[in-house]
Amino acid sequence: MSSSAVFILDMQGKVLISRNYRGDVDMKLIEKFMPLLLEKEEEGTVTPVLLLTKECTFAYIKHNNLYIVSITQVNPNIALVFVFLHKLVEVMTEYFKELEEESIRDNFVTIYELMDELLDFGYPQTTDSKILKEYITQEGHKLEIVPRPPMAVTNAVSWRSDGIKYKKNEVFLDVIESVNLMAGSNGHILRSEIVGVVKMKVNLSGMPELRLGLNDKVLLESTGRGKAKSVELEDVKFHHCVRISKFEDDRTIFFVPPDGEFELMSYRLNTQVKPLIWITSVIERHAHSRVEYMVKAKSQFKKRSTANNVEIIIPVPADADSPKFKSGVGSVKYVPEENAIVWSIKSFPGGKEYLMRAHFGLPSVIGEDIEGRPPIQVRFEIPYFTTSGIQVRYLKIMEKSGYQALPWVRYITQNGDYQLRTS
Fold this sequence. Notes:
The protein has 423 residues and is α+β, with helices and mostly antiparallel strands.
């Protein structure tokens, strides 16, 4: 990254706090940042990176009433610079609840301590707030109590502290899949994908090693079990605790987990998804004075599953009034600020079909362009179910003391951007 200095400025460009890491730039160059930014704004050419001829490069982000600015003379890894600036904001927000001018003025000592630990000679170091809070507190005098940083800072496993103890050792693992879908009024799928995340909550003592096995297609085929039910994961991203080389070698997800809650991995599948909840609607206009909607909702997943907290959002004309509803299940309400009806069904079992009728008056005579009609949106959550068919085959927990730990696994499918066009 090689950031020479980092500044936090107010909205007028006044320096509230700064840290010179490399000593290779003139700190007075920051005075040229705000005039340069204003000049670019007037020209309409403002960008997150500002070049000051050959003198330096400014990279900045804006947060609340502050500018957080990195200044460098060399050609830096600009993506890493922005990741760090956002991480700096994240850490300070966790420390001070709100990062703004007042919290900067009230916490100078702590902020200088943090800036010293976050970067060393312009390169990112410890950026995990849980670790930082072990030896940098918001009360300056407490800094003397800890004579040296905790093991996690100098240990190879920088994301986990030594000496963690729990009376009951447990691991909670959630596989959450969001379905993004756009379907035409004829039932054809125009766009669909599954976006999944594996979230964990780890309450384990010591320094445990975990091994997670999924029904990953590449793994099962390589071990001669290609006919077993498997999933071909795409665009897989892991938390930095996972040994990537191990996964690339034999598709094993091997890691020493952070303590508490974190996102272990994410994945995506570009696949043809059958709509889990299908909506058909018939709209009848009567002499431009009233309009009737007949909406049918059908759950197209297996009977043993149930969708919870289903919301079907049906757009209606902006001038609709005098709403009347009739439904065999759930509740229906008119939301005029969204120009929509919201049909709520608390529990929607698989293989069921429900009907709802709505009637509105139309005081003004306006022709509605069918092509321009917004799509119906559906929100839902289906527990104990995944659309992709991904499964946790095993979760092994190994720790040198040999304690027994309970792993809990839960599957959830929910809507992402889920839209159905109407006829």
